[in-house]
Amino acid sequence: SNFSTLQMEMKIVEDLFDKAELVYNLEKFGYPEHPKQTSDPRGQAEFFERMRFSRIAPDELDKQRDLMSKKLAVTYRAIEAQMQRQYEELSAGDAVYKELLCAMSLKEVRICDLDRSISLHEVGSSDGTLVWKIPFFKERTTSTDYEPVLFSPPLFTDKFGYKLSAVVHLNGQGRGRGSHISLFARINKGPYDAALTWPFKNKVSFTLMNQSSPSDHLTRHIVPDGSSQFQRPSQPTGQVFGFEQFCPKDDLEPKGFLKDDTLFVKVQVAKSALF
């Protein structure tokens, strides 16, 4: 393996350094003395190694030193190349990991965009009442890569009326973030806005449908007050209005609102203006 090769090359370097040090000591201190009364085998081995080198002629000693220097340089270059290869392999692995993370993030963004695209092109309602099915609740709310915000199909108050849509933040928004689902509506730019009366004055009702007990639906209302959210929109989508804390997430399943990982939301617009 690469690690084993690197270990072998490092051992060669250590041996070369030991021999280079021995040559240096011979040149500086001369002939070695026999260690007196020693039983240390390492001391004996070092003595005989010094003896072997001390019998080499000076010019041959220079050759030995040059040879060891060249070997040391070659080994150093080999180690350097090996380390560079390992660095490149690690860098390549890191690049692949980053590409995978990027691909996963793009996938989540595409899912979010697809949710929005489907919602915008779905057939909505033209009688002022929309029942909106929201499947895959747990899958959407456990994702950490994108905010689970869903947009309903369009809702028209009548065939030639106001155009609205609903927006749900499954993990909550504002004061409801993390603890509630947030439910809003907004008035969108419609084909008949020029013929309608502004500001928008019809009461809007939001209902989280109870799939276990229809008598226990959770309904809340918004009464328009003439503020900016209810003026004629100048952009394709208007400002939202609704409830940041519509329903605690912990209540959804126990109380029967969430069943088979699916929610049902009903949005209803009153037929006549309130003022």
Automatic annotation (TrEMBL):
Xref: InterPro entries: MATH/TRAF_dom, TRAF-like, TRAF1-6_MATH_dom
Domain MATH: start-end pairs: 127-269
A biological process term (GO) from this entry: regulation of canonical NF-kappaB signal transduction
SUPFAM superfamilies: TRAF domain-like
Top-level taxonomic group: Eukaryota
PROSITE patterns, A to Z: MATH
Pfam families assigned: TRAF-mep_MATH
Protein name: MATH domain-containing protein
